[in-house]
Every structure is written in structure tokens, then in C-alpha cells.
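Incident log, structure service

09:12 report received: a user says their structure output differs between two submissions of the same chain.
09:20 pulled the input from the user's history:
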Amino acid sequence: MPRIASAGAALWSLALAICPTGSVSAQEACSTYVAQDGDTLGSISMAAYGKLDYQLIFNANADTLRQDGADLVSGTNLIIPCSDGRLTQGAAIAPIEPAAPAAGNSGNSSGKYLPTVKIATGGDWYPFADEGLSGGGFLIRLVSTAYVRSGAENPVKIDWVDDWDSHLTTLLPTGSFDLSVAWYQPDCTELDKVSEFTRNLCLNYLFSDSLYDAVFGFFAQKDNPYAKAKTFADLKGARICRPEGYSFHDLDAEGLMEPVITLSVPPLSEDCFKGLVDGTYDIASIESQAAAVVIQSLGIGDQVVESSRITSIQAIAAMAWKANPRALEYLTYLNRGLADMRDSGEWNNIVSSSLQEANDKLASKTQ
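09:34 re-ran on a clean worker, output below:
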């Protein structure tokens, strides 16, 4: 699993109740649903899929959920996608194909030299970015395709540098690369209340629009008292683990800093979950999708539970060094392409097909 740096945005509790409405449909996959009083995304996911993981539901309704946040209103309509990510039963998952290469220097309409957009990413971040997945995983497919759709004539080159810390300390500041994909976008509104790491991101880097909004889960061993926590305040006193490089702005915002909690930062995600089982930690917190892979690979699914009441939604974005003279230009192109892909439905096709591939590969390993 990756040791990536992270920050995030758009935080709310899974306990959000949604007001009642006059009509209701069943909480079933491949359907739509009108949220009712007492529903949570977790409870809807349990009814539709038999599991707490509601990332699919968030993906299908990201625009609505991102805008409403904690102010979801009565009668909110939710798409409950099929378990493979299709929005409807009749929809077909687009085949995985590499994005067409961005236009090179020769033949560009201006006739001027156009520098290559140099993008760094890292692997072993399943299913987000991994060299064993088609196109390098869905984040890399999204970025590659966005540049094609943006109309940018600059050639684009993506290289894999698994030392994520070097992206921050060397690769972007020295201009060796223009962008790094992908990082959790920090909340920079109150810099006096954030960690030094988050402050550095806010002061020295620029971020693209969200490539993908990831659900961060909070996991505990079944018999641990903190498994029953319903709010962030209930985590006071807990021994919390997040892997090396991750930001903690969501914890900072809730007052969960040393010495209120004991925070551990081991090198790998696996270390956090092994620590849950042996009693070293009370809580492990990473992306729910990545956590599912770790839990399955360690064979601890019968020992670990995810909180149904505590979560954070964090925006994954591309990042550029502020002093890079082309940073705004390259991010603008990326944002333009992403907007086009969301409007056309291509964004969902890429995410759905990539996640289906990742799930199929994971399932084949366990058979």
C-alpha cells in the first residue's frame, strides 16, 4: 500500500439524518431512492449491497452530496448504482482503453514549441494508481484522458516515482515534474489550526479540481470500545493510526490532536491494521476502498469493523508547485478536461470500468 501524503475536504458525519419525504423507493442496487428520515449512506449501502462501503453511492451522487453536505434536504433523490458501478442495469461498462496520446509538438496549431507536461505519480495504491492495472489505475486514466479532452496540445508524460515524499521535497520544487498525481486536497481556511505538513501544502502548492472524492473510514477491532464511537468526540483518548505521509486535517478540525489522542504514523497501511488486531491501536483510518484490500489481504475481515457513524470525504487532486510558471496553465487544462468528462459521463465510465477490473483481480487472487 502507498505511503502517500494526504489532505482533504468536505467533512461530515455518516450520522446525517435525511428528512422524510412523501414517496419512497426500495433501497436496491441499480435503482433510484428517495432518502427518508433516519437514513445514512451507510444504512442505504447495507440495504442495497449488504456491506457498509458506500463509495459507489457517493460516486454516483457526488455533485449532489458535495454541494449539500450536512444540509441534505427532504426528498433528496439518490442514484443507487449497480454493484459493478453502472448507473443503471441496462448500461454497459465501457471497455478499458488507453487514452489517446496528447498531441505532440509537431503539428500543433500555433506552430510554437510546446513543453511537455511532466507528471509524477506512484504505484502500489490499489485501486487508485497501480502499474498492474490498465492505464495505471483510474486516477491515472482520468488525468491522461482529461488532457486529451481539454484541447491542450502539449505532449504529456507520466512517470512512476514510488517515493511519494520526494514529490514534495524534490520533484515539484526543483521543476523536475510539473504535476504530481494524486494528493488529498487540504482545507486551507484556518491555517492556524492545521499541522505543519498541511500548512506547507497550503502555502506552497496549487491543486486541481477534485479527480475523485474518497471516503475515509475509521476502523476498529470488533471488541474494542472505540468500535462503538458515534462522533469524533467519542474518539478522545484513542490510539489512532494513519500511515506515513497522510495529513490529519480532519482530525485537527475535530480537536483530535496530541495529547487528546495518541497518533501513530507507521510506514504502511498494513501496519495500522496489524496493530488493530494485536491491540497496539484502537483506530485505523485510511480510504475505505484501500482498506478493503488490506483487510482482505490480511484475512482479518471477521475481526475488524468500520464505524457506521464516523467518516470523512476527502478530495483527491493533482498538485503543482506554486512557483512553477506554468502551474496554473497546466491545472486549468486538467480542470477543463475533467469538467468535460463529467458532463459526458466518461468520468463515470472510467471509474466504473477500472474499479470492476480491480475487483475482479482481487477476487481472482482469493479463489
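09:41 both user submissions now match this output. Likely a transient worker issue. Closing.
09:42 reviewer note: The CA atoms of residues 123 and 130 lie 4 Å apart. The chain has eleven helices and eleven strands.
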